[in-house]
Design brief:
The chain is α+β, with helices and mostly antiparallel strands and 452 residues long. It has helices spanning 2-10, 32-51, 67-73, 75-78, 95-103, 112-121, 166-171, 173-179, 227-245, 293-302, 328-339, 370-384, 397-407, 417-422, 440-451; strands spanning 14-16, 28-30, 56-59, 64-66, 80-85, 92-94, 139-142, 145-148, 158-161, 186-195, 210-220, 253-257, 269-277, 280-291, 308-310, 315-317, 320-327, 340-343, 346-349, 360-364, 389-391, 411-415, 424-429, 435-439. The two termini are 31 Å apart. It binds glycyl-adenosine-5'-phosphate.
Length: 452
């Protein structure tokens, strides 16, 4: 993990948030390479789940939402983590993370009382900061970020930053039904930032205060569609997206079902697709059968009729939902972990070329020969019209290959003296390191073909 974090900083993927002011815990910024990678993941997700499906439409709802949304959904009362403080050094931690770190025991779903008992009765569960066993009681902290709107303070101006994108789909359910041609079963999909006031033990962007989610609410009539069958279908779609579209090694993935204690209050069945991160198997993508809990709640709280008439049966129903919900930043961390490869004398990110921040890099063999630089710039400008390309004229050619391997650039093109004679260049493949000489006019079609 440390090596991946160092590479991310060195090559412009991820920087610690507010770094010049000493940092702000659990926030991160994405550099030039990271911003491209995030964008590629988002685009692939959107293309796969919205553009390529007849039965899913997109949505882009507001991040700031009415306090009633979160009362109705149950988040103002039920969306909390159990925290504990060290009385000696004031270090604060999630009680479940503390136990898991110190005892390797899984405690998901345990009550506050049970967590407290485990910690207080085990002197080996010491503070990771100062080493003492001197804990406060375990307390619940709500994860929602409150915001005060306008200049009037008080309950009227209270709103929340959304804790999940999902609620945007529920509160706009009627709007979407009335303004588009959707028919059950159908999905509403959304990509966007969510915010949770979490305390985390590090691990880069795995768990942060603000993060991007890709969520789908797939609405159906449970009397017509079998929820267990839909659930299994969506599980297969999720698995295929990770292994086929993102080219992640299936051996690093597994399903884990939540037991009754761990399941969220709204869910009848939940499974996590877990990835083997350098710090162990952890949730990447959750799938939950939320029944019609959310629409029913919003109907009650808003006094609006959120039922629809099924044209097949002419029956009024409040549809049920299956919800696949993933974190885009967590996918990015998985992709970096899975593609990070150490070879004899290089480190290479063996990214699926579709995800690579830059598809090609163009170099002049020597940066102090204007005729080589001019030719390389011309090729760079031509390639850039077709795919994201970088130009690199710094250092020697070996250093440039080394840098592009660490960023995961699939193709490096070098303009040398032979180029000036016969309009050919070398193209080097990132993974095999093999170089081929090709005509400049064939470059774009060849790279487009290799990108697939
Ligand atoms: N609407 C359901 C929901 O939000 P969740 O399991 O809390 O479910 C879904 O979140 C996904 O969002 C997770 O599987 C994870 O990938 C991502 N996620 C959740 N909290 C996160 C955080 N603090 N930082 C980064 N990603 C997070």
């Amino acid at each position: 993990m440390e090596k991946i974090i160092a590479l991310c900083k060195r090559r412009g993927f991820i920087y610690p948030g507010s770094e010049i002011y000493g940092g702000l815990a659990n926030t991160y910024d994405y550099g030039p390479a990271g911003a491209e990678l995030l964008r590629n993941i988002r685009n692939l997700w959107w293309d796969n789940f919205v553009h390529k499906r007849d039965d899913v439409v997109g949505l882009d709802a507001s991040v700031i939402s009415h306090q009633e949304v979160w009362k109705a959904s149950g988040h103002t009362s039920g969306f909390a983590d159990a925290m504990i403080d060290c009385k000696n050094c004031k270090f604060r931690m999630r009680a479940d993370h503390l136990i898991e770190e110190k005892t390797k025991e899984k405690v998901e779903g345990k009550s506050i009382g049970e967590l407290e008992e485990i910690i207080k009765n085990n002197p080996k569960i010491t503070c990771p900061n100062c080493g003492k066993h001197n804990w406060t009681d375990v307390r619940k902290f709500n994860l929602l970020f409150p915001v005060n709107l306008g200049i009037v303070e008080g309950d009227q101006s209270l709103a929340y930053l959304r804790g999940e994108t999902a609620q945007g789909m529920f509160i706009n359910f009627k709007n979407v039904v009335d303004s588009s041609r959707v028919r059950l079963p159908f999905g509403i999909a959304q990509l966007g930032k969510s915010f949770r006031n979490e305390i985390t033990p590090g691990n880069s962007v795995f768990r942060t205060l603000e993060f991007e989610q890709g969520e789908i609410e797939y609405f159906f009539d449970p009397e017509i569609s079998n929820w267990e069958k839909l659930f299994e279908e969506w599980k297969k779609i999720m698995w295929d997206f990770i292994t086929k579209k993102l080219s992640i090694n299936g051996e690093n993935l597994r399903w884990r079902e939540h037991d009754e204690k761990e399941r969220s209050f709204y869910s009848k069945k939940t499974e996590d697709l877990e990835y083997k991160f350098p710090f162990g198997f952890k949730e990447l993508w959750g799938i939950a059968y939320r029944t019609n809990y959310d629409l029913t709640q919003h109907g009650k709280f808003s006094n609006k009729d959120l039922s629809i008439t099924d044209p097949q049966t002419n029956k009024k129903i409040i549809p049920h939902v299956i919800e696949p919900a993933v974190g885009i930043n967590r996918m990015l961390l998985m992709i970096l972990s899975d593609s990070y490869t150490e070879e004899k004398d290089r480190v290479v990110l063996k990214l699926n070329p579709k995800l690579a921040p830059y598809k090609a890099a163009v170099f002049p063999l020597l940066a102090n020969k204007p005729e080589l630089v001019e030719k390389a710039k011309k090729i760079y400008h031509d390639l850039r019209k077709n795919f994201v390309t970088v130009f690199d004229g710094r250092g020697n050619i070996g250093k440039r290959y080394f840098a592009q391997d660490e960023i995961g650039t699939p193709f490096c093109i070098t303009v040398d003296f032979e180029t000036l004679e016969n309009d050919t260049v070398t193209i080097r493949d990132r993974d095999s390191m093999k170089q081929e000489r090709v005509k400049i006019e064939d470059l774009i079609p060849q790279i487009v073909k290799k990108l697939g």
